[in-house]
Amino acid sequence: MKIPLPLSAITLGSLLLLSACSQPAEQNATTEIVAESAWQESMQIEGQVIAPEKTPVNVPGSGWAPRILEFIVQDGSAVKKGELIARYRAPRSETELAKAELELERKELAREELERNDTKRRTEIHADQSKVNADLQLSDRYSGADQQLFSRNKVLDTIQDQAFLKQKQGYLNWQLSQTSVRTQSDQALLRSQVESVAQKRDTEANALKQLEVRAPHDGFLNLEKNWTGNTPMAGATARPGDVVGNLPDLTHLVASFQIPEQRTFALQAGQTIEARLMGNGQHVPLKITRIGKTASPIGEKSPVKFIEVEAAFSQQQIEQMHLTPGQSLTGKLIFADKPKVLSVPNIALNEENGQFFVFRLEQGKPVKTPVKLGLRGPTRSEVSEGLRAGMQISLIPPNEQKEKSAS
Q1: Do the Cβ atoms of 243 and 58 come closer than 8 Å?
Q2: Given phi > 0 = left and psi -120 to 50 = alpha, else beta, which region is 97?
Q3: What is the pLDDT of residues 236-287, one digit of tens each?
Q4: In this entry, which stretches build a coiled coil (predicted)?
Q5: Cβ partners under 8 Å of residue 168, min gap 6
Q6: pLDDT at residue 142 above 50?
Q7: pLDDT digits over 8-63, tens only?
Q8: Which residues partner with 396 through β-bridges?
Q9: pLDDT for 34
């Protein structure tokens, strides 16, 4: 049979019980007994498979002549080395090539006409020279003849004709040399013009030979998006050198994760990530191979900054799991996994000039104690020197502890 207790006795017992429980709870909340124990810290992360090395795919050719896209494979298509990715037309190059070929034909006609005119002019000069030479021979005959056989006027005319003919002979020789100089000058100018037009013809002909884009290696084509978010389509205009897309190198794939900046101070290369591929659920162990140096937001509306972390897949993993860029995956990033270690909460650590220390309690009084840290995690850190098991440390600095007690 239960004996009912007075209300006052029940109330007093409850108050004593609450008082007894509240004191240790307050002590446990502000202090900790250092002990060797198992320590594991991890965080769940999400990411995707990417190819850090990408081969750019550009519109072929050179210069500024526009190209019109006739054909292009779909975004994300698997292509083999040498397979046609895109084909273009170059109407302006076609027109310029036709004009250049027509101009070369004109230059060839001009060259032939120049040669005909030179031949005609030389023939005329040679004919005049022949006539002058014949007249000179005749004059020489008269000049050596007996003057008694001819009248005095006839002799004077012959002598005058001989002087004139010699002057004319010199003039014709000068004309012949000038004809050669003028012809050579015209030919040099024509050759220069032909070379210029031929160079333009070769440039346009070469441009028309570079209208196809073929895959440099196996991969999945990622088409470049323009400012409207659209990928290249048939009928679009582009210029040589414009980016069409890129072809990831499928022999080198990594898992890319975005880690909040405030959680990255404990990151180290070589840490383990237990990843799992979305869809097929395959598990794959990875090691961190690269940690980004700068943090940036991943969305316009999010103020949180993230740092990219990469873990490379082995060639065997790529082949066995048929990995491709864009595959999603989840993972557990393991910061620490030790069976027996001395560790303290990060909130108990204080830093001055690069030196870490904690407040160790001796007979209830805080003692500033330097410590040397080993592995660090998001919530706890390994202590390699400065503390031993059984020591009691304060989780709150003495000044903050006094303020809390006063309040």
Answers
A1: yes
A2: alpha
A3: 888 888 889 898 888 889 999 998 887 777 788 898 999 999 888 899 999 9
A4: 90-122
A5: 128, 132
A6: yes
A7: 333 333 333 333 333 333 444 588 999 999 988 888 999 999 988 888 999 988 87
A8: none
A9: 92
SS3 of the chain: CCCCCCHHHHHHHHHHHHHHHHHHHHHHHHEEECCEEEEEEEEEEEEEEECCCEEEEECCCCCCCCEEEEEECCCCCEECCCCEEEEEECHHHHHHHHHHHHHHHHHHHHHHHHHHHHHHHHHHHHHHHHHHHHHHHHHHHHHCCCHHHCCHHHHHHHHHHHHHHHHHHHHHHHHHHHHHHHHHHHHHHHHHHHHHHHHHHHHHHHHHHCCEEECCCCEECEECCCCCCCCCCCCCEECCCCEEEEEECCCCCEEEEEEEHHHCCCCCCCCEEEEEECCCCCEEEEECCEECCCCEECCCCCCCEEEEEEEECCHHHHHHHCCCCCCEEEEEEEEEEEEEEEEEEHHHCEEECCEEEEEEEECCEEEEEEEEEEEECCCEEEEEECCCCCCEEECCCHHHHHHHHHC
- Contact by Cβ (8 Å): 392, 360: yes
Task: Select from 311, 305, 313 the least CA-distant residue to 259.
Answer: 305
Q: What is the pLDDT of residues 247-256, one digit of tens each?
A: 888 888 999 9
Contact residues for 377 (Cβ-Cβ < 8 A; gap 6+): 39, 41, 266, 335, 336, 343, 346
Q: Which two tokens stand for residue 43?
A: 């965080």
pLDDT mean over 166-192: 86
| CA distances in angstroms from 340 to 39, 70, 205, 374, listed in the order given | 7, 67, 75, 13
Residue 65 has pLDDT above 70, yes or no: yes
**Is the full-model pTM beyond 0.90?**
no
Phi, psi of 404 (to 5 degrees): -70, -40
Residues found in the chain:
407
In contact, 366 and 359? CB cutoff 8 Å: yes
The pLDDT score that the predictor gives to residue 312 is 94
- Looking at every residue in the chain, the average pLDDT score rounds to 82
Residue in the block written with tokens 């000058």: 185
Residue 224, judged by CB atoms within 10 A of its CB (0-12, 13-18, 19+), counts as middle
